[in-house]
Structure formats: structure tokens, C-alpha cells
Design goal:
Blueprint lengths: L6 E5 L8 E6 L7 H11 L4 E9 L2 E7 L4 E2 L3 H15 L2 E7 L2 E9 L3 E6 L4 E4 L2 H11 L13 E4 L3 E6 L3 H5 L5 H10 L4 E7 L4 E8 L4 E4 L3 H14 L5 E7 L7 E8 L2 E12 L3
Parallel strand pairs: 2-3, 4-6, 11-12, 13-15
Antiparallel strand pairs: 1-2, 1-17, 3-4, 4-5, 6-7, 7-8, 8-17, 9-10, 10-11, 12-13, 13-14, 15-16, 16-17
Helix pairs in contact: 2-6, 3-5
């Protein structure tokens, strides 16, 4: 296989050493699934995005691979790909046709590129207590360490995430889980990450995302989970509209910022962030 050119970007940050690194392959039309998986494993980031086709001037087919498997949707790799394309085509609207559905992205340039993705239609599901107990045990947490004001749910906005809210910042900061046990738990339930959150203020959250099903201990900044989390808060009646700020990656030394917007009467969730090339 001829190795394709792989671009590298840090998403949800303006610092190449922050946020979540993503691989981007702009010319992937000739690659099959095995080849894309091999490239993603070689890159070693939580996800690499592959532009597998072009259906219009600013319309593209996009697929995502972790080092272990294809992922239905990846927010940070979408932002990275949008910025990479905007550097070549100019800012403006882009449309990505992903395995999860059509994802519009708007890229702006105010001295640095930022992208806002609009999610596919989200949904939120209840979780049985026994399932929550199993997840909590795999994390090495205790049920009493969860925030009762933010009950566990499964949330989807392109990929499925189990949302668990920690009662304290200290609980969120201390993440040391059983990788194999949590991977089996998530695989059995078709979960992409576990979205661990702590509410700092009404509009600001600290978040972390274990990602063992992708072969990664923790995802540094997770746009798909951020979109799902917006849908989760709406479903709980916490928000019908407005903006949220999610801080992620601080505990990994890769701080990133994700902006989440809910609009009245629109079920989609918008997630915004910057992205910059990684050149070193």
C-alpha cells in the first residue's frame, strides 16, 4: 500500500501541544477499510479522519478510524478536517457525509481558524441501575461519588456515550480504571466513550472521556461526546437553549475548550472549537 499523506492537527485548542490531536487524510478515495485502519494505528491518535470522496465543491465523504476500529462519528477529527480544508478552500460552509449522517460545519477565520459542527439528530436513553453499577465498578468509583442531580444516561449525537457525573472535582481528577473490564462493558453496549463530567458552574463543566474501545486510555477533547452531553442536559430539562463551555484535557496536560450551543426548537447540538496544525 502506498502510504497517503497524513496531516496532523490539534483540535479544540490554539496550541499544538493542547487539545486533541487528530490525523487527517485528505486524499483517501483509494483506501479500503483495512488500509485506513492500518494508517490510523500507525498515526496512533484517538482518531484519524479520511476524506474518501467529494460530491461537490465543499461537500465531502468522511470516515473515522481509531487505532482499533472504525468510529461512526468523531467531533475533534471533524473540526480538524474542516480547518484543513478551509486552509485550502477558504472559510465558509462545508458538508460532511459521515457514517452517522450529514454533518454541516461552518469555518470562520478571525486570525485563526475555528469550526462549528451541527450534530445529527440526538437521542437520550435511560440506563438500568445494574448497568450503572457495573460501569462504576469498572472505573473504580463508588455510587456515592456520583452527582445525584445529573443522573446517568446514554446520550447519542453521532456516537453513543454513557454520561456519568462526578460529585467532586477530585473524583473526576483521579481516573485509574480497569482498561479491559471497561472495554468489554462498552463493547457489549455499543458505547464509544464514557463521558465523565463535573459541574463547575451552571454553564461550565469539566469532562473526561475514557476510550478503551478505540485502544486509547483517554480521549483528550471529545466533540462527539460534547454534542451528546448537550442533548443530555436538554433531555434532563437543564437547558432548552444557550451556550455551555466544556474544559477537557487539563488532567492529561493537553487543555482544550469545547463550546456547546443549544437552540430553541432545534434538536441538533452545535459544537465549536479551534484547530491548529501540529508541525513538530
Amino acid at each position: 500500500m502506498t502510504r497517503p499523506a497524513v496531516l496532523r492537527y490539534a483540535a479544540f485548542t490554539d496550541d499544538p501541544a493542547g487539545g486533541n490531536p487528530a490525523g487527517v487524510v485528505l486524499e483517501a478515495a483509494g483506501l479500503d477499510e483495512d488500509a485506513m485502519l492500518t494508517v490510523a494505528a500507525d498515526v496512533g491518535y484517538s482518531e484519524t479522519a479520511f476524506v474518501t470522496g467529494r460530491t461537490g465543491e465543499r461537500d465531502f465523504a468522511l470516515r473515522y478510524f481509531s487505532p482499533r476500529a472504525e468510529v461512526s462519528f468523531c467531533g475533534h477529527a471533524t473540526v480538524a478536517t474542516a480547518v484543513a480544508l478551509a486552509e485550502r478552500l477558504g472559510p465558509g460552509g462545508l458538508t460532511f457525509h459521515t457514517p452517522a449522517g450529514v454533518v454541516p460545519v461552518e469555518v470562520t477565520d478571525d486570525g485563526g481558524y475555528a469550526a462549528t459542527l451541527t450534530s445529527v439528530r440526538p437521542y437520550v436513553e435511560p440506563v438500568e441501575d445494574a448497568d450503572v453499577a457495573e460501569a462504576v465498578a469498572a472505573l473504580g468509583w463508588r455510587w456515592s461519588e456520583l452527582d445525584p442531580a445529573l443522573p446517568p444516561r446514554i446520550a447519542y449525537a453521532g456516537a453513543r456515550h454513557l454520561v456519568l457525573a462526578a460529585a467532586t472535582r477530585a473524583r473526576l481528577a483521579d481516573l485509574d480504571y480497569d482498561f479491559d473490564v471497561l472495554e468489554r462493558y462498552m463493547t457489549a453496549r455499543d458505547l464509544t466513550t464514557v463521558q465523565l463530567v463535573w459541574r463547575e458552574t451552571a454553564d461550565v463543566f469539566r469532562v473526561r472521556d475514557p476510550f478503551p474501545v478505540g485502544g486509547v486510555v483517554e480521549d483528550p477533547a471529545t466533540g462527539a461526546a460534547a454534542a451528546a452531553f448537550g442533548a443530555y442536559l436538554r433531555e434532563l430539562g437543564e437547558r432548552s437553549h444557550g451556550r455551555l463551555t466544556l474544559h477537557q484535557g487539563d488532567d492529561l496536560g493537553r487543555p482544550g475548550v469545547l463550546r456547546v450551543e443549544l437552540r430553541e426548537g432545534d434538536p441538533a447540538v452545535r459544537v465549536s472549537g479551534r484547530a491548529v496544525p501540529i508541525t513538530a
